Amino acid sequence: MSVSAVIKDGKLVESASESSVKNAVAKNGMDKEAFLQLLVAQMKYQDPLEPTSNTEYISQYATFAQVEQMQNMAATMELSRASSMVGKLVEILTKDSSGNMKSVSGIVEYVTYENHKAFVSVNGELYSADDVNAVIDETYQTAFDIAAAFVAAMDSLPKLSMLTIEDKENVEAVQKAFNSMTAYQQGFISDEYVKKLQKYVEKMAELVEAAGGDKDDGEGGESGDTDNDGTVEDSDKTEGTEGSDGDSSAGGESA
User: Fold this and answer.
1) Is 8 helix (H, G, I), strand (E, B) or coil?
2) Distance between CA atoms of 200 and 104, rounded to whole angstroms?
C-alpha cells in the first residue's frame, strides 16, 4: 500500500490519502488474533488454586469461532461494497493531519483489501472505503457542472441596463449553450436565470434593431437557437412561473 506525506513549513503533513488509511487502521479494533492472544494469556496466568474449567474454555472457544465468522462475513460484505464502486464517480470525505475535512472526487480505479479493510484507489491514491461519502451518477454530475458553468457565464455579463451591442456575441453564446442543453440539464437551472436570459435576449434584439440590424445575420438572423421573436427555447419552463425553490438547481441572485 503506497501513501505519501509532504513537508510544509518544515513540518510533516499527511495527505488526505494517508490520513484516510491511518484512520481506517485505527478503527479496525480487536481482531481474532487479539482475541486468541487474550485467551492464551488467560490460560497462562490463571489462578492455580481456582483453574478455569474445561466448560468455560469451550464456551470461550465457541465465542472465538463466532467472532471469526462475523469478522469474515463483515470483510466479505465490505469488499463486495467497495468492488461495486469500481468505475463510478465518488466523493470521499477525510481529515488531514490538522483535523480539517477534505473532499476528494474522482473515479474509483480499483479496490484493494488489506488487514481486513477495503481501500479504493481514486486519482492514484488509496482511501478507506469507509470514507466514501457518496457515489455520484455521472449524468447528474455532468448536468450539474453544465448548469454551474451556465450560471457563471450569465453572472459575467454586464447588468441589463448597461448592455450594449458589443455584448451581442457573449449573449448569443450563453443563449446557444442553454438551448443546446437537454431538458434534464435545463432542470438544474432556476427559473430566475431562465427569465434573466430571456430578458437579455430581448434587450439585445432591441439593440440590434435600433442599430439597423446586423448585416451578417441577414433578414431574419442566422441563429438557429431562437424563434423568430428571439425567445429562448425551453419546453419545461414558462414565463409565468415565479422563481424556483432551487434545491437542486444552479443559480442565485440575478445581476
Assistant:
1) strand
2) 37
pLDDT higher at 192 or 18: 192
Q: How far apart are CA 253 and CA 255, in angstroms?
A: 7
How would residue 192 be classed by pLDDT, with cut points 50, 70 and 90?
very high
SS3 162: helix
Q: What is the pTM of this model?
A: 0.52
Distance between CA atoms of residues 213 and 223, nearest Å:
14
- Residue 107 is which amino acid? I
Q: Residue with C-alpha cell 433578414? A: 219
150 contacts 110 by C-beta, under 8 angstroms: no
What percentage of the chain's residues is helix, strand, coil (to nearest 5)?
45, 20, 35
CA distance 141 to 89: 9
Residues sharing a CB contact under 8 Å with residue 170, sequence separation 6 or more, in sequence order = 153, 156, 157
